[in-house]
Amino acid sequence: MLAKDLVAASARPLILSVLAEGESYGYALARRVRELSAEQIDWADGMLYPVLRRLEGESLIASEWREEENGRERRYYKLTMDGRRALKAEKAQWLVVHNTLSQLWKLQPASI
C-alpha cells in the first residue's frame, strides 16, 4: 500500500482523470482506481466522499441522484468544463514531478 500522504495528494487528479473517462458513482470510481493501481490505492469512504464534495464545491464536478434497476439510489458524478481545465493543469503539475523523479531514477520521462 502507498503512504497515506501520497494517496491523499493524488486523489484529486485521479478522480478527475477517472471522470474524464465518463461519469461514475463513488464505489465504481474507487474500484477503478484500485484496479488501475494493482490494488495499491484503496480509498476508504471517509477519504473519497469529502474529496468528491470539495471538487463539487469548486464546480469541477457535478452530481445527480439516479435510481438503479434494483430501486437503490446512487449519486453519479461527472466532469464539468472547469473540471477538464483543472485536469489539464493537474496533469501538467504531476508530469513535472514524474519527469523530475524519472531523471533522478534514470527512467524515461513522460509527455503530455
Mean pLDDT: 94
Number of strands: 3
Name the CATH class of the domain at 4-80. Answer: Mainly Alpha
Beta-strand residue percentage: 5-15%
What percent of residues adopt helix (DSSP H or I)?
Answer: 55-70%
- From the alpha carbons, calculate the radius of gyration and give it in angstroms: 15 Å
Largest sheet: 3 strands, antiparallel
Q: CATH superfamily of the domain at 4-80, please? A: Winged helix-like DNA-binding domain superfamily/Winged helix DNA-binding domain
Mind explaining what this structure looks like?
This protein is α+β, with helices and mostly antiparallel strands and 112 residues long. It has a domain at 4-80: Winged helix-like DNA-binding domain superfamily/Winged helix DNA-binding domain (Arc Repressor Mutant, subunit A), CATH 1.10.10.10. Helices cover 59% and strands 14% of the residues. A hairpin with a 5-residue loop joins β2 (61-67) and β3 (73-79). The protein is globular and about 55 Å long. The mean pLDDT is 94.
Gist of the model:
The protein has 112 residues and is an alpha+beta fold.
